[in-house]
Design a protein that fits this description.
Mean pLDDT: 83
Keywords: Cell membrane, Membrane, Transmembrane, Transmembrane helix
Radius of gyration: 21 Å
Strand order of the largest sheet: 1-2
GO molecular function: chromate transmembrane transporter activity
Pfam families: Chromate_transp
Strand content: under 5%
Number of helices: 16
Protein name: Chromate transporter
Number of strands: 2
Structural class: mainly alpha
Largest sheet: 2 strands, antiparallel
Distance between the termini: 58 Å
Family: Belongs to the chromate ion transporter (CHR) (TC 2.A.51) family.
């Protein structure tokens, strides 16, 4: 187990009988049911958007269950930030894939996505006319997201940006990410940090990264790439010749999931062009669903479930949801084996060190905007976020419990205000 020495260095205290507990846990293959249980919990409690999701993932899969080490998790985050599609959902799929193969990837996606998708389908049926964004409990959920992300940034910075050069890369990445917000900015920041890391970080013999357990061959990866581009180019042709609405739904949502960089809110104008312009719904219906999407946990891309429900009922919701996420699955399957081979080469480690520092900077920037700017408006908001941070960092309260407490605290502040 010499390969994994560096990846488990921070867990030396877990040695018992000559075997590291975290190493043993990661060496064995997990089950899809195990992954599903974790994903459902995350899907019910992960409020605050994609950056907060990464904090929740880290808490459950890196800190608590030790399925991955810190550097491997940062590698996955960096990879998914560079791919089109919802980065947080792609990280979840990758974790499930590494842990339990293709059933694990499906289990993670299902558990993390289903709660918000069902909630948004219910909103499409019954709650389109209710204003929910300004309610106190929703604001409390934004506040707790600040605490969750702050904890993730703190923990990752201590391990991934602790020296002068990497700390400087992290700070500069945060500055650029705050001042230059575009769909391609994160990709360029990560690429630049990799180059700077390669050139500036000290040269050494290189360390061996903890290798990922990839449960499929490169042949499967090439098949995934073929499916990704094949569907991207063939679905518009099928849409043109078909008389049914279903190929059009499949094409619109698959193409959106394939081409959007930045994830989250970036997908909204693309979706609006796809569903409002053809007359499938009114702008007011679209914006009502957007408001509902802000109040549910899980990925914002489940907004597709709401839109599909309006377009074609339950079958439309299912087709739209699967279609918008399917490109992400194909990209992860197609990229992961090659990414793992590159990241374990000693000569590539300096570039990865720079990328890790950039990930810390990007998360720090997102902690400020949109999380801090949206959530922290009054001294009471700051006090609630600070107490949530203390509960997570000092008292080690489970994140889901802190989420519930902050939702109740936000509702109480709304009533008192």
């Amino acid at each position: 187990m010499e390969k994994d020495r560096d990846g488990f260095r921070q867990n030396r205290g877990d040695w018992a009988g000559g075997t590291c507990a975290s190493e043993t846990q990661r060496a064995r293959k997990g089950s899809a049911l195990e992954v599903l249980k974790v994903a459902v919990r995350l899907g019910l409690t992960s409020f605050g958007g994609p950056v907060a999701h990464l904090g929740y993932y880290r808490e459950e899969c890196v800190i608590r269950r030790k399925w991955l080490d810190e550097k491997t998790y940062a590698d996955l985050v960096a990879l998914c930030q560079m791919l089109p599609g919802p980065a947080s959902s792609q990280v979840g799929m990758a974790i499930g894939l590494i842990r339990a193969g293709f059933p694990g990837a499906l289990a993670f996606w299902t558990g993390f996505t289903l709660p918000s998708a069902l909630a948004l389908m219910a909103f499409a049926c019954a709650l389109q006319g209710i204003q929910i964004k300004g309610t106190g409990w929703v604001h409390g959920l934004l506040v707790v997201a600040v605490a969750v992300v702050a904890r993730a940034v703190w923990g990752m910075a201590r391990g991934l940006a602790s020296d002068r050069l990497r700390g400087t890369i992290a700070v500069l990445s945060a500055v650029v990410a705050v001042l230059w917000q575009s769909a391609l900015s994160q990709v360029l920041i990560i690429a630049s940090a990799g180059v700077f890391g390669w050139i500036l970080l000290p040269k050494g013999p290189g360390r061996e990264a903890s290798p990922l357990r990839i449960p499929f061959s490169r042949r499967a990866a090439w098949i995934a790439w073929g499916l990704f581009f094949g569907l991207l180019f063939l679905l518009p042709l099928w849409r043109e010749v078909a008389s049914s609405r279903w190929p059009a739904i499949l094409d619109s949502f698959y193409r959106t999931g394939s081409l959007v960089f930045g994830g989250g809110h970036v997908v909204l104008p693309l979706l609006e062009a796809e569903v409002v312009s053809p007359g499938w719904m009114t702008p007011d219906q679209f914006l009502a669903g957007y408001g509902a999407a802000q109040a549910v946990p899980g990925p914002l891309f489940t907004f597709a479930a709401y839109l599909g429900m309006l377009i074609g009922g339950w079958p439309g919701a299912l087709l739209a949801t699967v279609s918008i996420f399917f490109p992400s699955f194909l990209l992860i399957v197609g990229t992961l084996p090659f990414w793992d081979r590159i990241r374990t080469r000693p000569e590539f480690q300096r570039a990865l060190d720079g990328i890790h520092a950039a990930v810390v900077g990007i998360l720090s920037a997102a902690l400020y905007d949109p999380l801090w700017t949206e959530a922290i408006r009054t001294p009471w908001d700051f006090s609630l976020a600070l107490m949530a941070f203390a509960l997570l960092m000092i008292w080690k309260v489970p994140p889901w419990a802190v989420v519930l407490l902050c939702a109740a605290g936000g509702a109480l502040l709304y009533l008192c205000g």
